[in-house]
Amino acid sequence: MKKGKPERGREILFGVNPIHEALKVARRKFYGLTLKSGIKQAGAVAEILEIASRRGIPVKFEDIDTVARMAAAAEAFGVAGVIFPDRRAAQYTPVAAKSSAGAGERARLCRVVNVAETVRTLKDEGWRVVALDGEAANEFAPAPGPLALVLGGEGEGARPLVIKRAGETARIPMQGGVGSINVSAAAAIAFYLASRR
């Protein structure tokens, strides 16, 4: 499987039943499969995974709903745009579009090759860049002026170089006993707080 964008002529097929049938018929060449994290691995899904394993088709699991929820939150709170890494991150797919109830069609979504370089560019252009981190000493406090928030992947957080380039970290203010929340919930809270400036 080649890395990067699909070659011209490749198609994206989605839905458990269409993929299951296409794998059984074996007329299409599969370059990879992406399944929703937490999907029940039984029935047709179990058979999809078994066929993929047998044929050496790469399978990755993504939290598709995270992208959908972030797009919906961005639209709800007037965020100017959401930047996603081009690779190694969940993408705004047709399934995410459905999950977001179309909010992603209104939100400005942009994929970039290098997030660290994008952070550097934003800072050079006068943006305040804050990397959200549950372990940060300071609580997130929006201030006037252009603001970019960096949110890392589920469980991993932002990459060290991205945090270093941001130059500022902050945590979401929380009062309950839960130590952390998922990235889409953190995004929604941060977007709301930023919208109140």
How much helicity do the residues have? 25-40%
Structural class: alpha/beta
What's the count of strands? 7
CATH structural fold name of the largest domain? Alpha/beta knot
Rg (CA only)? 19 Å
How many separate domains make up the residues?
2
For the biggest sheet, the summary is:
3 strands, parallel
Please, what is the average pLDDT? 82
Assembly category: single chain
CATH architecture of the largest domain: 3-Layer(aba) Sandwich
Order of helices and strands: HEHEHEHHEHEEHEH
CATH superfamily of the largest domain: SPOUT methyltransferase, trefoil knot domain
Distinct helical segment count: 8
Distance between the termini: 46 Å
Low-confidence stretches: none
Shape: elongated
Sheet-strand content, in percent, reads 5-15%
CATH hierarchy class name of the largest domain: Alpha Beta
Structural account:
This protein has 197 residues and is α/β, with parallel strands linked by helices. It has 2 domains: 47 residues, no CATH class; 132 residues, Alpha/beta knot (3-Layer(aba) Sandwich). The chain is 39% helix and 14% strand. It is built from 8 helices and 7 strands, in the order αβαβαβααβαββαβα. Helix 3 packs parallel to helix 8 and helix 6 runs parallel beside helix 7. It is elongated. The model has no long low-confidence stretch (mean pLDDT 82).
Task: Describe the secondary structure blueprint for this structure.
Elements: H1 16-25, E1 33-36, H2 43-55, E2 59-62, H3 64-76, E3 82-85, H4 94-99, H5 103-106, E4 109-112, H6 115-124, E5 128-132, E6 147-150, H7 160-166, E7 169-170, H8 183-195
Parallel strand pairs: 1-2, 3-4, 5-6, 5-7
Helix pairs in contact: 1-2, 3-8, 6-7
